[in-house]
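Re: the 236-residue chain
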Amino acid sequence: MVNSSIYNTFFSKKGGANNLQTKKLVNIFAEKKELLVATFANLIVQLGITYFVMEKTVIDTKDKTIYIKMLLLFFVQLAIIIILSFYPMPSVFKFFIFCVFSYIFGYMLAITQNSVGKDIIKLAITGTISIFAVMISIGTILILSGINLSLQFGLILYYLLLGLILVRLVTLFIGSSSAFMKSLAIFSLFLFSGYIIYDTNVILQRNYYGDFITASIDYYLDIINIFVNLISFEQN
């Protein structure tokens, strides 16, 4: 069903139907123009903060408390996500809280950067941008084809993410082989690529009532996780 919808979008001889779908997509972009511009502008700002902090922060790897700090920062980030997701507040406050979140992520990534070479970082950045662009295109094509991803699809992604988190927690305590970690990184890349497709589908369907912060934080988390897993793949 899905394949036939996509096939019809690009190869069907029924030009009228295709034109109607194209006009529908154009109308969606026109309707959500301000939201999309604000979402991607904020996304660029937040990723810029993260990258700047990552590049400029010098981490003392001999500091024995570094992993305790990382754990505390993780819980701070978790609290920020909960606040941004469930507590209504003006966009300007959400923006500044998001900036704090991005700053913390940059600090945490600085620790990762110390253990890998500049070439791997550049490769991961290029790969992340490429994957993001392709997945957004796929998400848009699905909308053009009249395919709206359901909440059930989102729940599948959610349960897969929970499983991934549990597996990663277990590997922290019992360890794992390089091959297994590489397989886990590949699975994570597919999972967060799926999230980009789903988030794109949702953003183009859902009424965010101008809340570009919520829209951009989903993309931000997808991008950061893809970036981290590309580094992990190259390391193992």
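The chain has one domain: 2-235.
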